[in-house]
Amino acid sequence: MKKSLMLLMTLIFVASAMLAGCGKSNSNGGNAPANEGQTTTNNGGNEAKVNDEPFEITIRHTQVGESKKFRLALLEDVVKKTQDAVPGLTIKLDAVESEVNRKEKLRGEMAAGKPPEVFDVFGSPDAALYAKEGLMLDLTPILDELGLKDKFTTLAPFTVDGKIYGLPIGGSIEGYFYNKEYFEQKSLKTPTTLDELDKLAEAIKADGKIPFAQSSKDAWIPLMTTNNLWSYYAGPEITYGFKTGETKWTDENMVKAVAKHKEWVDKGYYKKGELGFEYADMRNQIITGEAVMMMDGSWANSVFRDPAQAGDMVGKIGFFNMPPVNAGDPVVVMQDANNGYGFSAAVAEDPRKLQAVKEFIKNMWTDEMQLRGLKEDGVLPAMKMDLEQMKTTSDDALMQDIFKAVSEIGTSFPAFDALVQAEVNTALSMGIQQIIGGEIEPAKMLENVQAAQDTANKAEQ
User: Fold this and answer.
1) What's the structural domain count of the chain?
2) How many alpha carbons fall within 13 Å on the CB side of residue 275?
3) 396 occurs within a structural domain
4) Do 428 and 279 fall within a single domain?
């Protein structure tokens, strides 16, 4: 994350505030009748004719690259169903890489007040910021109309003042993918404590392998490890207090957590040069056998189940949760449903576009599509579903490991970037990359993050 992004964010949200003051479209988009998009005309014979004049909406998605091909196929099928159901509708798919969409393109469009009709978005904090500017469609009445409001495991990341401004596409947990074949050959067992994980890493490094695959060009990737570590050392509840000032980044247990991450870097548990590696590079470290374990989101399972991507490693990769500090302590895991789709408030001004959005929602968020996403792409459902039903949907061994990991969770928490301001995320991202690069010590790094937190909190008062 570059320092200049902090200035960019400031400019963007100042611009957003100015635009919001000029008057935004009505956000009560779902209050119109369900058939409002079926505009009719009288042909002189007292027969109603459906308005089938051509019109278009854009869906901004992030299903880019080989690893997301199954998700793209699912989206394309939903698009086809939606187009077939709405006369005259053409849906344009606009593919943008996830980080570029979230941190550059969508922010710029929101500042200009012109986002696409449908767009990939993170619920917290992004959707909340855009919703408060009047830029996102209130989905509450639409979900009531479609009978979907109570069907989700959680809508908290997309809820602002009791209104819903987006829908999660799936759920996820974070943990370690690992080379099961290697573990079997070396008679290694999955760890039950962090000390055992340390000893595993030492043994793997002594064998000439990289213990942990890692790519740190994008800071959110190594921060998965840091976030899980501090949720053990300081407790997952600490992250909720940063924004209110009730807790501090400089807490001694936070320092211990960052120091543990630094210790792993210093011991050579990651491949040298990780700051220059892209996201796909660390997966390749596992696939080629260069590395043995990898912290990532459960969504990455689709790569390791696809022969076109994982080759001979299909069927040889397992998954386990990061273990607790002490034996017998509850397993603490990042688990959320914070990524999904949002909708432009401007849709409410066009009955046909509003009907297209309703049809898209009706087709996308079904048990069938959730289970298909689970079976084909390994995405955990965002809608309520029995764990046993999930287990029978996919008999894949890696997915069974992930289901087991879900069943072991004692305490779950959302990722840190759902709980802190964007400028704090920027400071933390810069900090972890400085830690990895050996440029700063943990205590000083966290002092810098706390300074950013204090500034952000003061700005919101």
Assistant:
1) 2
2) 13
3) no
4) yes
Beta-carbon-side half-sphere exposure of residue 105 (alpha carbons within 13 Å): 16
Torsion of CA 115, 118, 123, 127, to 10 degrees: 30
Does 152 lie in the same domain as 55? yes
CA dist., res. 169 & res. 181, Å (int): 32
pLDDT at 42 > cutoff 70: no
**Strand 409-413 with 331-336, pairing:** parallel
168-185 residue pLDDT tens: 999 999 999 999 999 999
Query: Does residue 19 sit in helix, strand or coil?
Result: helix
Burial label, 215 (beta-carbon count in 10 A; 0-12, 13-18, 19+):
buried
**Range list of H helices, 409-441:** 422-436
Cα dihedral 44, 48, 51, 52, rounded to 10, equals -100
Q: Are 397 and 315 in contact (CB under 8 A)?
A: yes
DSSP per-residue codes, 289-358: TSEEEEEEEGGGHHHHT-HHHHGGGTT-EEEEPPPPSSTTSPEEEEEE--EEEEEBGGGGG-HHHHHHHH
13 and 71 in a single domain? The answer is yes
Q: Look up tokens 């109570």; give the residue.
A: 150
User: CA 459, CA 440: separation in Å to the nearest integer?
Assistant: 27
The count of C-alpha atoms lying within 13 angstroms of the C-alpha of 273, restricted to the half-sphere facing its C-beta, is: 6
DSSP-based three-state secondary structure for 163: strand
* Residue 416: φ, ψ to 5°: -55, -35
Crossing angle (nearest 10°) for helices 422-436 and 442-460? 170
Residue keyed to tokens 């929101």: 110
User: Using the 8-state DSSP alphabet, how is residue 274 labeled?
Assistant: G
Could you read off the pLDDT of 276-308 as tens digits, one per residue?
999 999 999 999 999 999 999 999 999 999 999
Q: Which domain holds residue 352?
A: 4-171+338-385
Element (H, E) at 27: none
Task: Examine residue 392 and state whether it is found in any structural domain, yes or no.
Answer: no
